Amino acid sequence: MAATSVASRYARALADVVQEQKLDADGTGAELASLLAMLDSSPDLKKVWENPSIPAPQKRALLDAIAQRSGLTKQVRNFVAVMIDHRRITMLPQAAQEFRAEMNRRLGFVDADVTSARPLGDDERRELEASIGKSVGSSVRATYNTDPGLLGGTMVRIGSTIYDGSVKGQLERIREKLSAG
User: What is the value of pTM for the model shown?
Assistant: First the structure.
């Protein structure tokens, strides 16, 4: 079975728990992100959790210490413990990403990465999110970045689709048309 589908199965199970117990989906996602950041910053922790020769009870004891120190909810702690027990902890980053995507689907959101030539004001952000939402038929959760190299306008990425409304993109399209004939 492909790693993505396995990670997706774990993510759907966590999403089910979040919905059934009426937990904060954003908070759960933030806990997973915090745990992943901790793993990235601690190669030793990652080695221990990924080492098949270390028994699962020892790994769970380490998880419990981390959960207590960092305030992980019981549900996130149990989710990670199940991944440890089933030797799927290497899939935690994919499962966290799939969890966010699954919760977005269930709640009717899409993630959009917006890059603009200059920082956008609150009114511009609301207007842009409403416009994107109308185009894709969902509410939008946008993250914003700036890139002065765009010269003006914005680029929006939703999944693998890019909507390029930047001046740089328009100039490139004009150049392509002129060189084509």
Answer: 0.71
Average per-residue pLDDT for the chain: 90
Domain coordinates in residue numbering, the chain: 3-105, 108-180
- Check residue 41 and report its DSSP letter: H
**Residue 181 to residue 179: CA distance in whole angstroms:** 5
String of DSSP letters for 85-135:
HTT-GGGHHHHHHHHHHHHHHHHTEEEEEEEESSPPPHHHHHHHHHHHHHH
Domain 3-105 is of which CATH architecture? Orthogonal Bundle (1.10)
Per the DSSP assignment, residues forming a β-bridge with 164 are 155
Residue located via tokens 């499962």? 95
Give the pairing type, strands 109-116 and 154-158: antiparallel
pLDDT band at 104 (very low <50, low <70, confident <90, very high): confident
Strand order across the beta sheet in which 139-146 lies: 139-146, 109-116, 154-158, 161-164
Q: Which two tokens stand for residue 29?
A: 């996602």
